[in-house]
Design a protein that fits this description.
The chain is α/β, with parallel strands linked by helices. It has a single domain, classed as Spore Coat Polysaccharide Biosynthesis Protein SpsA, Chain A (Alpha-Beta Complex), CATH 3.90.550.10. It contains ten helices and twelve strands. The strands form three sheets. A seven-stranded mixed β-sheet has the order 3-2-1-4-9-6-10, sandwiched between helices. Strands 5-12-11 form a three-stranded mixed β-sheet. Strands 7-8 form a two-stranded antiparallel ribbon. Helix 3 crosses helix 8 and helix 6 crosses helix 8. It is globular and about 55 Å long. It starts with a strand and ends in a 10-residue tail after the last helix.
Length: about 325
């Protein structure tokens, strides 16, 4: 079994994207879904039952309203708070999920994936996170150095200059800032000592779709590292933080994004046409957001036409 976590922003388009994502999830991989956890980031509480419950039974759904309490950047530190809170709730509310799948609303399920991810984790005992663009992009090329690296190095200093909202000195001597610094130190130590391989500060499995082993999340919880609020002021996104946490705890992050594998996921846009991505056998693609709303709808229609006859869910081995 697995559980899925989806963070939903405000606005009607986000609700439409959520529904389209869930339709694709139900079509291809509903059999082994234990729990769907939806984080609603709208400021005012809204009723998501009309969007969700006719697709996924109520007993399988958990809706969390704005865990970050509208604090922090919605796409960076605030999103990290929401995601880590959802993962902690997911651990507490499930018993059979072998892994937790993090998805964006502009992702789409295009083929069964459960057994492939399960087998990958079985073959890579120390892999905690599996996704795309950690070391290799969808074209098979090395991923460039992360644009998050300078920010993380700054957070790793004991004393630093901050210009938001005004010029001032900031330290990492106490509280959450010290804890963040210690986690970054642990990740750097794990990398330089060879305990984990290939980590460069800021490297991450892209957030449009990646899976986290349950044992990793249990490990992070035991260390007190599922407290998302320590990241609220950092302006670091959730995918970067989760790969950092896995590395700091001594777990590997791996790519599973070549043709025939699961994660056809990159930061912006699609790496090919819908026809090419479906033919490549990817189970999850990202991002369907396009230059215009009309183009996004056309992409969705193309995927619907190409995948609507696909059997719903592979069989557990």
């Amino acid at each position: 079994m697995y559980s899925a976590i989806v963070c939903v922003g405000p606005g009607e388009k986000e609700l439409f994207r959520l529904r389209e994502l869930l339709k694709s999830l139900v079509l291809h991989e509903s059999r082994f879904l234990e729990r769907l956890i939806v984080v609603d980031d709208a400021t005012e509480k809204r009723e998501l039952s009309e969007t969700i419950l006719d697709l996924v039974p109520a007993a399988q759904c958990l809706v969390l309203h704005n865990p970050r309490r509208s604090q922090g950047d919605a796409w960076r530190g605030g999103l990290t708070v929401n995601t880590l809170f959802a993962m902690a709730e997911g651990l507490a509310s499930t018993t059979r999920s072998e892994y937790f799948l993090r998805l964006d609303t502009d992702s789409l399920i295009t083929a069964p994936f459960f057994a492939r991810v399960r087998e990958f984790f079985a073959q890579h005992a120390r892999c905690g996170v599996v996704g795309s663009c950690y070391r290799i992009d969808l074209c098979g090329q090395p991923t460039p150095r992360s644009t998050w690296e300078p920010r993380l190095r700054k957070l790793h200093r004991w004393i630093r200059i901050r210009r938001n909202p005004f010029l001032h000195l900031e330290h990492s001597l106490f509280d959450s800032r010290r804890e963040v610094r210690e986690i970054i130190s642990a990740a750097l130590s794990a990398s330089t000592s060879g305990k984990v391989h290939g980590y460069r500060l800021g490297s991450n499995a892209q957030g449009g779709g990646f899976a986290m082993r349950r044992e990793l999340l249990n490990d992070l919880r035991s260390r007190g590292w599922l407290n998302g609020r320590i990241w609220l002021e950092t302006e670091i996104g959730d995918d970067v933080v989760l790969s950092l946490l896995a590395t700091a705890a001594g777990w590997e992050v791996e790519d599973f994004n070549r043709p025939g594998e699961v994660f056809g996921v990159q930061y912006q846009g699609l790496s090919g046409t819908p026809e090419e991505l479906v033919a490549a056998g990817y189970g999850i693609v990202h991002s369907l957001k396009s230059g215009s709303w009309e183009n996004e709808l056309q992409l969705r229609e193309s995927f619907r036409r190409l995948t609507c006859s696909t059997p719903g869910g592979d069989r557990a081995s």
